[in-house]
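My current task is to audit a protein record that another person submitted. Thanks in advance; the entry in question is below:
***
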Amino acid sequence: MKNISLRTYNESLEKLKKRNKEIAEFSEKCANERRELENKYRDLIWDLNQKIRDLERKRDKKIENIKNKNSFYKSEILKRYVFNQQYVDYTQKIFGMIDLFDNELEETIPLEPVDIIADDNYKKIYVEIANNNKPVNCCDLIIHINHIFSNIMYSNTISYILRMSAGWRGEDFILKSSHSKEILLKWYQKNKSHLKFKRKHQKDIYLFKDVLSELSELETIYKQAQELYKQTQWQLAYLYYKKYYYENYYSNGKETEEYKSTLERIKIIKTERKNLPLLIADIETEKGREEFSKKLR
């Protein structure tokens, strides 16, 4: 601006004051209109919100009643069919055992272990002392567990232990650590009847007697499966179980060699055993399955 004067400056100031006053007055007018509108609808909105909350409570109560009704019905249904569920679970555990017939434990127990708890075709369990390279408590008293019962439904309380220790290598679990082997040996002799252990970096405590009990039960079922599998009916039941598995639960299961081998084995048995008490073709019908189930019992 080349021509600037105080007069123009003062006039501009007055005009800006007038502008600001107009803005303030209009803003106040709008604020008053807003407050009047809010007051007008406040009670109506409160009433509507209250009605909404009442409707939500009624809705939630009805939903809770439906959930309770469903839970009760489901509970009653489960009670009614508890035997059937147990029977199916146990039979499928038998089928799982048949899968393990070719499993062998090739592991050898090391020389001079502290104790050999089990050494047979189903399990190898022994106790030994190993160095852990720690500056303090440099010795670990370890219980080594290995068994053939992989991919089986275990007891929930010790499923982690059995799952970890199944396989060709097994798993080591630390019973106690100390700076002295003699202390560990004395401790083991004193406590071997009620051993407890846990996995590294875990808080859960496992009782060794529970592990032994579960392995003993699995061994019994394994031997039962061996006897049942001598019967043609059980061979077929197992093969149809595997067939169903590959068709419904295995990705591209029908393309696997195992599936094709299963079909071939079914065909061979049907050819060799034409005089079965039940026609094989009927096994996949509802009535046929019922009759077949009766014969399996």
